[in-house]
């Protein structure tokens, strides 16, 4: 639909007074009192990065304060509120407002902050949202939520609530139970959303709820845990993909996303909280073809598997890596140089497989940048318990490099005292004694070898099946 501009001129006159409001210490502030709607553009080094707004859209008055502030010294956005009583405009709605910060644009003739690599409105959803924040709440019923408005036209100077084809999507990271229980009662289903949480890729369970009213309304909200102190990254493309799979009739990919809003919905109850946002940004996703992982080497030392690898990103910097054993929980891998901040990163994974039960396992490793992931580096492990004295053994996995008798001795540990190989030409045994022999012969798949052990050990192999 074509958005109306009837009141645009008047609104711009009102907003122009508030766009550059700062406090005495140079901070940008939007606060009630005095105003329930006061969008302020935050400009840093000549770039419009954010818009902050107290946004008390359903408030006549309250006996305390609600404030959104940006500190030019710390670059922190703080959303805070403290009040006991509130008078609402519409008493049928429990929410009194959504004090917020946004990147890009917001409808209803609001100003934009568009000095990012991703420009809004946009119908390309290949970008990542990143936020680092902490919530301290003493009382009240609130959520911490992203809000996205998907519009039918590339124009935010409109009221999208009047268009039945509008799609509003909220992505909650925290909520008090009574804000979400009604959606659970109405059949919200549990799905998983891939996010990076505190540096680790996880498939996080969320409730998914959809309703059709004057416009289309979708909410993702936590199913297992609320996040109160976190560093989160997620792909907008993944959210759109989920919505498109659940409700293809909405045709969400034909819409224009106005911007990325982050705020706290507040209910009409005594409230006291502070949300500190120390990082909030968007950036384009990296092509999956541009991230690679390459194996540098594998060794096994007394049951501990050590895998060294190199990650490369051609379109940006490597931001992290993790590994899993079979379908277990992901474990973060630290960068060898102390920080993931360059296009090439070296990593090392150490797994003490001597603690595993006997059997086969898969060690899977990958890295990521902008929530795009490298291919998996998969390594098969086999764990066997061997008792003391003599054994006839054979390799069961194809090694990544030639395996010699010294490698076998290192893998098993000091319990191994000797390895014997039958020499077909000499019709006699060759022996390797750790720390003594120079005859460090190669071990081949399909051939048997004698070993002698002083005690029970775990023998761990690492290779290809």
In words, what does this structure look like?
By secondary structure, the protein is mainly β. The chain folds into 3 domains: 8-284, Glycoside hydrolase family 11/12, catalytic domain (Jelly Rolls, Sandwich); 288-380, Immunoglobulin-like; 383-463, no CATH class. The protein contains 4 helices and 35 strands. The strands form 7 sheets. It has a 16-stranded mixed β-sheet that branches. Strands 23, 24, 26, 27, 28 and 35 form a 6-stranded antiparallel β-sheet that branches. The longest helix has 11 residues, at 8-18. The protein is elongated, with a radius of gyration of 29 Å. Residues 1-21 have low confidence and may be disordered.
Summarize the model shown.
The protein has helices at residues 8-18, 177-185, 236-246, 405-412, and strands at 28-32, 40-44, 47-53, 59-62, 65-70, 77-83, 86-88, 95-97, 100-104, 127-139, 143-151, 167-175, 189-197, 200-212, 216-222, 229-235, 256-257, 259-263, 266-267, 271-284, 291-301, 304-313, 320-325, 331-332, 344-352, 359-369, 372-373, 377-386, 389-393, 403-404, 416-423, 428-432, 442-443, 449-453, 457-463. It is mostly beta strands.
User: Could you tell me the radius of gyration in angstroms?
Assistant: 29 Å
Q: Helix proportion of residues, in percent?
A: under 10%
- Low-pLDDT regions: 1-21
Instruction: Quickly give the structural class.
Output: mainly beta
CATH topology value of the largest domain? Jelly Rolls
Mean pLDDT: 92
Please write the CATH class name of the largest domain: Mainly Beta
Largest sheet: 16 strands, mixed
Amount of beta strand: over 45%
Number of strands: 35
What is the number of independent domains?
3
